[in-house]
Amino acid sequence: MSRVYPNDMTTSACRNLIPLIATFAIFALSTAGIAATITANVQSYGATGNGTTNDETAIKNAVQAIVNNGGNGTLYFPAGTYRCATAGDGVQFSGVSNITIQFDPTSELLMDNLDGSGNGTGCGVEFDGPCANISLQGVHVKWKTVPSSRSNGDAIRFMGYPSDAGSTISNVQMNNCTVEQAPQTGTIFMGCSDITVNGYVDHSTLADGLHFNACRRATVNGMNVSNNGDDGLAWVTYYNSSTSNFSIYNDGTGPWSQPGYTEWCDTNSVATNVSVSGGSANGVRFNQTNGVTVTNVSVSGKAGCGIIADAGIANGGSTGWSVLASQGVNLGNVFANNCATYGVGVYLDDSVGGSGNFLNFGIQQEAGSLISLTNNSVWGVLVQGFDSGNIISGVNFNNIYASSTVTGYCGNLCNSNTTNCSILYNGSQPEAPYGVPSPSYTGQGWAIPGTVCFDNYDTGGSGVGYSHLYTANSGVYRTDGNDITASGDTGYGNGYAVGWCNSGDWMNYAVNVAAAGTYTVALRLQSVTTNAQYLHIQDMYGSNLTGRISLPVTGGWQTVTTTLTLPAGQQILKVVNDTVNGGWNFDCMTFTAKGSGPYQGAPWGIPGTLNFANYDTGGSGLGYLHQNNANNGAYRTDGNDLATSGDAGYGVGYYVGWLDPGDWMNYTVFVAIPGTYTVNFRLASPTSNTQNFHIQDAFGNNLTGTVTVPNTGSYTTWATVPCSINLTKVGTQVLRVVNDTVNGGWNYDTLSFTAPAPPKNLTATGGTKKVTLTWSASTGATSYNIYRGTSPGGENSTVAAGITTTSYTNTGLTTGTTYYYTVRAGNTVGMLGFSTEANAKAK
User: Fold this and answer.
1) Cα gap 449→58, rounded to integer Å
2) What is the bridge-based pairing of β-strands 210-213 and 233-236?
3) Which of 267, 431, 520, 693 could form a disulfide with 458 if both were Cys (CB 3.0 to 4.6 A apart)?
4) In whole angstroms, what is the distance from residue 324 CA to residue 46 CA?
5) Residue by residue, what is the 3-state secondary structure of 385-405?
6) CB 270 within 8 A of CB 196
């Protein structure tokens, strides 16, 4: 397929309009001096939030207040719909750092800025570099009217520069942001570094859903894009041989190019739990990427490919821009179905004259993962050079399943004009081990809330859908090696049960969870033995979700209940028998929403900042416990005590207080990377009495030890209190803050989780067949891993792990070769931040 436009523009005519657009909230900025942090509540500057009044002037004035402060502020949108009805951007910051934009869970920025032809005239939220430390929390941007065509106006736009010497934007975090009906891209990052996106949602934008152009070190944890006008997730860097002018238009603006495989080709980036459905173009695109891993991907109903990685040279016709073949691409657990062309397509767009960097791909499948491609219209997998003079290489897939019943389907594999490409097929469709759609016995994930019959464990056979020590199935219901029998459990299940279980036996169940939250699980079981019997349910990461469930002697069928917390979306649940001789039968398990979940509908990202006032929903006993039930109606209207904090620059402007011993609050979070984090609590207290609290997990394990509250001077004099917390589990989980003091004389504002900082000051010095590295120690790190490559940004080889010092000598190197290195900091649980790159030539 040919490329027609770069992601953030449509035609040259649209580009030429940009200088003529009268924007608001664009300011001449001064960053001289560092001021105290402030909070600018848009309603305090005159915004109504009624969805009818044009709130542009009030928003402009609130932004200007933060600008006048030199940045260092929070732009806060309380509950309401804030209409922007003049051509231009809704919110724009340029050249200022340390900015948070915080939306109330019911807030919306309503863009009503289309011109007379129905075309866009500006972005919803825009940041222009240089700037750093930008946080978007719960931001919701929607266009009031569907634009008539793809035109100017990304919902969220970060315009940086792909060089540390330029206007780079660094350290950006987006949590639980939603965009709708934007004239252009949902969210675009250009020339940005160290990005984290958690829980992102895009509906019906006219271009890409989430786009990274010439970025580095981006992490995406959970995204859902539906019915958009271009690629769902795009990793794109354009090619230009210039080492000084990175603009593809040669006018000093993005999108950006690079002269080869540099660290600004989206290097060291990861995306997981990606869902794309409907709309034009492709699910996930790779163009000139250099080290991107994408796992747990579901793509359905796209007008192009499920996954695409193409390359080509601009020819003024079918190929609009030059892009090199992507390197260092890792795919794991990809499900693409009902796409109009290919499930996976890797190919050249045109003749590149045999030029190597356009031909040599580096795309592989992660070991143990699955790529499942069903009912795509043309090919399951297409790997294809342009012709015999333009042969591509470097595509390796080790576990592909492909099939289609679409009329006109060409076949499962087209592998032509290639060399050193390997595509291996699995004879039958196995179960997906990491929670993506369509692996279950009925062909789709079981709905939660809802009932799952134990005999409907996933397909794939022994070791994939289930594990059963003794393979002696009677042929009832299913004919594999698991033991199934008629249940006789009237009114429950489908009439069959799984039995004769042994220690370590397990069964997998692909499920689709409607909403993140806590669920009650009612298990229908039958047992006649008096031996101690236990089982548990775990997630796709192997984390125990229920703890050990004790099973009683039932005689007949009986219901045993427990609770667990689940993220939204497709995933795998595993039921594991922990008993040496499991003398029971399984019928079914029913999941019921317990009425508690994250306050804004999606888990809070860690690392990141949580507001104590944003405890989970569900009310007393589910989201929180407060024994003095006397809320004054501030921010939330349940029985917890909240009030205005006055803690400028922190939180949403409200705190939790008036605490009693045993009071607690739950917070549903998503932990991106396991590790030991520093937690900084914002607290206020006027008393010197012994006061303490702790954080525990869903099983009651104390994760922090005792945290002591100091005397800060008053109930509104705020101080930061740090401690450490060890989070060993990846994914969604619940953390509980528990008051341990008889008289809890303090107030809570925020708690921020920070990981060990990346190593700094990395230097590389060449020696005889060696390179010596040194770096500065990272706070919180206990070890370091060393990564090496032979091109900028190409550090895909681990040369040392578990280094406990701040220096390392890499020996046995080739004389005259330049080697490139990065160092990653970690601790006893996991590896975290990457350093910048350093290089040296071996002598």
Assistant:
1) 43
2) parallel
3) 431
4) 50
5) CCECCECEEEEEEEEEEEECC
6) no
- Contact of 51 with 81, CB cutoff 8 Å: yes
Structure tokens at 227: 């019915």
What single-letter amino acid sits at 198? N
CA atoms lying within 13 Å on the CB side of residue 231: 25
How far is C-alpha 637 from the geometric centre of its chain's CA atoms? 31
DSSP three-state, residue 454: helix
* 670-690 pLDDT tens trace: 876 667 788 999 999 998 877
pLDDT value at residue 99: 93
DSSP state of 13: H
Greater model confidence, 621 or 833: 621
Site of tokens 């169940």: 509
CA 703 to CA 261: how far, in whole Å?
42
pLDDT tens digits for 127-185? 999 999 999 999 999 999 999 999 999 999 999 999 988 899 999 999 889 999 999 99
State whether residue 19 is helix, strand or coil: helix
- Terminal-residue alpha carbon distance, the chain: 46
What integer is the mean pLDDT of 351-378?
Answer: 87
Query: Which residue blocks in 685-774 are alpha helix, DSSP H?
Result: none
Residue environment code for 359-378, b if the CB has 16+ CB neighbours within 10 A, otherwise e: bbbbbbbbeebbbbbbbbbb
Rounded distance, CA 183 to CA 90, Å? Answer: 14
In whole angstroms, give the CA distance from residue 637 to residue 620: 12
Dihedral, CA of residue 524, residue 526, residue 529 and residue 530, to nearest 10: 40
Please write the tens of the pLDDT for every residue from 463-485.
778 888 776 666 688 878 888 88
CA distances from 713 to 379, 646, 717 (A): 69, 14, 6
Task: For residue 557, give both structure tokens.
Answer: 């069928």
Give the whole-angstrom CA distance, residue 276 versus residue 281.
11
Alpha-carbon distance of 436 to 571, in angstroms, equals 6
Q: Which alpha helices (DSSP H) does 535-579 contain, by range?
A: none
Structure tokens belonging to residue 322: 């030059």
C-alpha neighbours within 13 Å on the C-beta side of residue 811: 0
Query: Rounded CA gap, 459 and 466, in Å?
Result: 8
In tens, the pLDDT along 421-461 reads 888 876 444 444 333 333 444 445 787 888 888 988 887 77
Phi/psi region, residue 591 (left: phi>0; alpha: psi -120 to 50; beta: rest), is beta
Q: 460 versus 350: which is more confidently predicted?
A: 350
Cα–Cα dist 440/457, whole Å: 7
- Which residue is associated with the tokens 């040369």? 799
pTM (predicted TM-score): 0.62
- Residue closest to 673 by CA, chosen among 193, 272, 365: 272
d(CA 325, CA 323): 7
Question: Tokens 């240089």 map to which residue?
Answer: 130
3-class DSSP assignment, residue 427: coil
270 Cβ contact partners less than 8 Å away, ≥ 6 residues apart: 218, 219, 220, 292, 293, 294, 295
Which amino acid would we find at residue 733?
Q
Whether the bond between 758 and the residue before it is cis, its omega within 30 degrees of 0, is no
Strands 446-448 and 581-582: unpaired
Q: How many CA atoms lie within 13 A of 20 on its CB side?
A: 7
14, β-bridge pairs: none
Q: Quick one: which of 39, 118, 37 has its CA closest to 72?
A: 37
The DSSP H or E segment spanning 60 is helix 56-68
Convert 129-153 into a string of H (helix), E (strand) and C (coil). CCEEEEEEECCEEEECCCCCCCCEC
Q: What is the spatial distance between Cα 824 and Cα 811, in angstroms, rounded to a whole number?
A: 19
Phi-psi region of 646 (alpha: psi -120 to 50; beta: other; left: phi over 0): left
Half-sphere exposure of 787 (CA within 13 A, CB side): 21
| 471 DSSP β-pair partners | none
Helix (H) or strand (E) run with residue 263 in it: none
